[in-house]
Amino acid sequence: MKYIFILLLLVSTGCFASDYQPLIGATGEKIYSDACAACHGETGKGKFGIFFDLSTSTMASGQMKVLIQNGGSLMPAFPNIKGTELVALLEHVRSLSSLAAIK
After folding, report:
1. Quick one: pLDDT at residue 14?
2. What is the DSSP letter of 23?
3. Using an 8 Å Cβ cutoff, are 78 and 13 in contact?
4. Closest listed residue to residue 74, CA positions, set 40, 100, 97
5. Helices (H), the chain
6. Burial class (CB in 10 A: 0-12, 13-18, 19+), 33
7. Architecture in CATH for domain 2-96
8. If we measure between CA atoms, which residue out of 31, 27, 28 comes closest to residue 18?
9. In which band, very low, low, confident or very high, does the pLDDT at 69 lie, cut at 50, 70 and 90?
10. Which of 4, 61, 78, 103 shows the greatest Cβ crowding within 10 Å of its Cβ?
């Protein structure tokens, strides 16, 4: 029952935009910690066993930008992350990838 409640809560959050506003010049690591780590985990390997594991992502940067700003099925939109802060976040997410070590 607990897992059903958590799943319903998570699905409902995907329908809304987050009002998170990063500080101008914030690092990608800080933005990730504030906006992403609660679900994706500090290392990007996911939390609760159901969230997307960013460490193995092969998503293109353009697709990732759209997903961050518009949200996805379980992910809220973060329309206020843009410009240099969005670029910094993308670079940080890429640094979490186990595939980054190969390149």
Report:
1. 47
2. P
3. no
4. 40
5. 2-13, 28-35, 37-40, 61-70, 83-96
6. middle
7. Orthogonal Bundle (1.10)
8. 31
9. very high
10. 78
